[in-house]
Amino acid sequence: MTDPTKEPAGSLPSGPTAGIPQLPKSTQLTFSQHVFIWLLIVVVGVLFGMGGSMGSLMAPSQDSHGVSQREIEVRRDVDTRLGKVLNNPRQQTNDDYAKFIKLVWVAQKAGLQPSGHALDQLVDDFLDHDLGQGRTVRAALIDAQGSDNEVTHDELKRTIAEDAAVEAFRERHNAVPAVPLGAGAGLDMVDNDKIQVQSALLNASSLLQPVKPDDPEIQTTYETLRSQGKFTQQPTETVTVAYGDMPALISAAKASITPAQIQAYYDAHKAEPRFAQPAAAPAPSTTPAKPGTPPVAAPAPIPKPLAQVRPEIIQTLAEEQAVRQAKAATKALDADAEDLEGQKDNLSFIDEAKKLGLAVKTNLVIEQPTRDPMMERYAQYMGSQPLMIELAGLGQLRDEAGLFNADKEPGFISRPLTASQGPLEVPLMLRLETRTEAGFKPLSAVKNEVIRHLQGNRAYAPFMAAVEQVRDAAQKLGPNGLSTYLSSPAGRGWHAQVSSETLPASQMLTPPPASLGLTPPDGHVAASLALADHPILVAADDEDADSDIPQVKLLQSSGYVSAPATAALDKRAKLAHQYRDALKNFSYTLFQPEMTKITQ
User: Fold this and answer.
1) Would you say 218 and 450 are in contact if contact means Cβ atoms under 8 Å apart?
2) Could you tell me how many helices (H) and strands (E) the chain has, helices first?
3) Which among 515, 566, 569, 520 is positioned nearest to 542, based on CA atoms?
4) Can you say how many angstroms the Cα of residue 261 is from the centroid of all Cα atoms in its chain?
5) Cβ(234)–Cβ(367) under 8 Å?
6) 3-state class of 365 per DSSP?
7) What is the rounded distance in angstroms from the CA atom of residue 578 to the CA atom of residue 187?
8) How far apart are CA 207 and CA 463, in angstroms?
9) CB-based contacts of 503, cutoff 8 Å, min separation 6
């Protein structure tokens, strides 16, 4: 049994990788040795049922990124056992291992793999690492000796050496200078400094030109917007709805409500809070209460007189009667649904519904609603909830019939359902007429939107030219030039309001692109406006990015508020460390293409 915490006997090989156990070199076998080995394999296979495993033994291993499968398996096997011992398993693919091994080779060639005393020190540090509750890696490896998860000293030493080599290689190409604490103070000021600006929104509404209905660019613009994901639509269905006309039914029911019904309802419900008179405020006590005296119980609520609540009772009774009447009609229609379902048109369905006193809506288009992501996430606990469908003029309907399920075909008639108009129920039944799959809205349905976009697109170039003229004219007026120009006769035509804003000095202001659809140029930090000549910046209006009418924002500085210098040493150190991390990430980004070439 090999103790992983002790150096095995024997000298270690010298050279760049001295002290690192290497894989044994293969030796040429004689023909008789080959024959003897294969005889043993065949005999063992016959005795223990190897069978079809012979082919896999003779098949060559597949390489990954130029690394043999055997080399990958050797490293994976050690990592797997070490991960089980330390309760920290690695989840890596063959590609991950292949790329790592290629980095090991490059690091070894560069002389970055530790050996000798340096490696011994790394191994000791690793073995002395505390796993918690006073237990070290050394103790865990000793406990694993003799088990399937045993890791030998040679395996551990080689793993640590290769990990250190790769880490050294990455650090060599990821080196960044030290950052003084003063940089942290400067960063804190940049983050907290404020700049006061005057801003105005200019839009191209006055520059929009009419577009003829047969303009050929309407079609090409529609196709362009479609390719950008606009004008999508959910699956839709056209339905015929037979429903209770609740206003008419309630109006008719009110005429039949008797005084006896009103009195009975009042007697049964007058104790409810909705019928209680407002409680009078208690009279203040003239003497202080004695300690331990229980609070005085509030008087029982007094119901409002019947005459005061009579209209409310009549409305409630009429609604209940109307709902019962509509439900009875939909129940009767449901009894005939088997004969009506599957017919080529809705004429019989409409005729039968009207005979039963139901109103009918035809060609009602409903759109399949999307599921709430939060409800989907917790569906395993709450169960799948029916979708809520908007029925124009009839309220919301819980799709308990599964109208958008694939098994529902035109001619399908639902069972009696109930929509909701606020607190009022609307009994109804649906007949499915047609179905449209998800896709894009046709040009005819969005033509006005397309024309609006085309108008904005055509106006963009002259609009931006006009904005540049405004900027130049206002900038010549110096401080407050923006407000001065826009209030002058030359600037009033823009109908722009100048407002005051306070921006973080580090806020990025993005200029508008040279042409719609192009990538905008690099932005400017707001602090760049705080110059002696008070420049005016043209910035994109991020809050109105989806508007079809071009719109930009003009900004001019009116003051600068400096943040106090950071005195706390720990905060300055933290900010300096963050700045150095940013430099390190930038350095790694620059080296990433070279790293990719190595691991391909």
Assistant:
1) yes
2) 19, 16
3) 520
4) 56
5) yes
6) strand
7) 10
8) 7
9) 194, 195, 197, 526
Tokens for 222?
């529609």
Q: What contacts 262, CB < 8 A, 6 or more positions away?
A: 306, 310, 313, 314, 317
pTM over 0.85: no
Which pLDDT value is given to residue 172?
82
Show contacts of 9-16: CB within 8 Å, 24+ apart.
Answer: 12/115, 16/108, 16/109, 16/111, 16/113, 16/115
User: Which pLDDT belongs to residue 469?
Assistant: 95
Whether residue 447 has pLDDT greater than 80: yes
Residue 28 has pLDDT above 60, yes or no: no
Whole-angstrom Cα distance, residue 98 to residue 66? 8
Average pLDDT over residues 259-279: 89
- CA contacts within 13 A on the Cβ side of 70: 6
Residue 403 CB burial class (10 angstroms; 0-12, 13-18, ≥19)? buried
Tens of pLDDT along 111-148? 999 999 999 999 999 999 888 888 899 998 999 899 99
Q: How far apart are CA 594 and CA 582, in angstroms?
A: 20
Angle at CA 124, nearest 5°, toward 119 and 125? 95
Q: How many residues does the chain have?
A: 600
Is 187's pLDDT higher than 80?
Answer: no
Mean pLDDT value of segment 165-170: 88
Q: How far apart are alpha carbons 143 and 149 in whole angstroms? A: 10
Nearest-5° Cα angle at 411, 410 to 414: 105
* Local structure of 181: helix, strand or coil: helix
